[in-house]
Amino acid sequence: MGAEARILGHGAIRAVAQAAGVSETTVRKGVDELGAGAEPLGRVRRPGGGRWRAAEVDPEPRPALLALVEPDMRGDPMSPLRWTTKSTRKLAGELTRQGHRVSADTVADLLREEGFGLQANAETLEGAQHPDRDAQFRYINDRAKEHMGAGDPVISVDTKKKELVGPYKNGGREWEPKGVPAQVKTHDFLDRQGPGKAIPYGIYDVAANTGWVSVGTDHDTAAFAVASIRRWWQARGSHDYPQAARLLITADAGGSNGYRTRAWKTELAALATETGLEITVCHMPPGTSKWNKIEHRLFSHISVNWRGRPLNNHDVIVNSIKATTAETGLTVHAELDLGTYDTGVKFTDTDIDALCMHRHRFHGDWNYTLHPHHGDTADTAKDPRLAEGLPPQFRVGGLRNPELTGMTEPALDELLDQLSQKLDELREHGRSQQRGGDRARARGAGAKDKLTTADRVLATVLYLRKLGTQDLIAQLFGVTGSTLTRTVHQVQPLLTEHGYTIRASTARFRTPADVTAFLTKSKPTKIKSAC
């Protein structure tokens, strides 16, 4: 407009203003800008023009907003938005109600300036950590290196999340014609008359970087887990490792392949006998199942491969798993297992004792080896003497083993010397109070104590070492659980008084037979005292 006015000459400012429908002042500013030779502003207003920002006019919305988004740290714990979604619209509405007129866009700007952003939950909390967590990881790593160095297979096993089979929603997005998404059910309720669920059980070969998945249709049981391992060995493992005599399995701590599952050990023992393999199992510490290699080497790629795709039938599931690959060269084989696997199968202590199973010295509950069973092998677990405790040759000297007590024999003798006199005095004082007077008979007359003073101290040490259950420790000394409880209550305060702290052992025993097998193979070892 300024340029037109300069061309037309006298009276042009008014004429241009009337023609353009603006004020004469605006046209005159254009003429002045051209005359001054200024660069074009590139905007409607000069910098600083227009309304001031809401946060500059009223500085109070900022602390009020922080009080709403962080009620636990900076503001009122009874914030009205404490239990609702904190969208910018709801935050703006609450601030307006408090007398601060702001828009949702202004709220978003303020939050960004304060370092806020939209955040999803981060799955990082693993719960309480077992004190031997890292030591178990190192132990598994050492066993895996040993097996792979000898050319023996190392596999990681687990059950993937059960999947609903049918037109159900599957997480993720996939390229489809625009506006024509795959149609799925509005609710993920299992149709009892439909194809049911799919139970993918995976075996990941660590050295070969190959996967095997059995897709079950019945129940996720120990029998199904071991049947999947058997299929892998018969179809793949025995061909990839024709000279192998051992197999290492790493598994998590729970589920169908958990370390407490008796059926898992029983089925593996049968597999060891059938294949002639020495099968070693190392379980991940509790709460660390996501560290199992199969989770991020196999299962994660399967989930990505079938994202956004309804798993309408078992064929879709099997073919999707087969087609899974990765840049690392991963290949996967999948099969459908239509077998039935009963639940509620029970195995007794006698059944477990009859297994050819050796528990490792480090956490025998997590680490154990199942040997092939031969008919002529003597089954020491059926020795009737073991039901009453240890055999006589192990009763006295065997339980003083440094690997059981956590201290050398001289250190144990020193402990006994320090506690024996005080323990005898306490027992005599307690009996005097029970009698209500002096002895009627000489010391040593009457019934004999079930445990000597030395046995009481030794039993307490083994109990505090957590080598097994209270019943097991009681069986080792041929007493009842009540007798052991009274013994621990008498000795433990004396240990504390004399500055002894008994550290828990990494060895775990379940039956006297386990202790007998350990003592039979054990050799004298110099170790650091556990006190």
Q: Would you give an account of this structure?
A:
This protein is an alpha/beta fold. Helix content is 42%, strand content 9%. The chain is built from 20 helices and nine strands. Helix 16 crosses helix 19 (481-497), helix 17 crosses helix 19 (481-497) and helix 18 (470-477) packs across helix 19 (481-497). The longest helix has 27 residues, at 409-435. It is elongated, with a radius of gyration of 38 Å. Mean pLDDT is 84; it is low at 377-389 and 524-531.
List its traits.
single chain, 531 residues, alpha/beta, 9-stranded mixed β-sheet, 20 helices, 9 strands, 9% strand, elongated, disordered C terminus
- In terms of per-residue confidence, which ranges show pLDDT below 50 for 5 or more consecutive residues? 377-389, 524-531
Mean pLDDT: 84
Using only CA atoms, what is the Rg?
A: 38 Å
Specify the biggest β-sheet: 9 strands, mixed
Number of strands: 9
Helix percentage: 40-55%
Our estimate of the beta-strand percent is: 5-15%
| Cα-to-Cα separation, first versus last residue | 96 Å
Structural class: alpha/beta
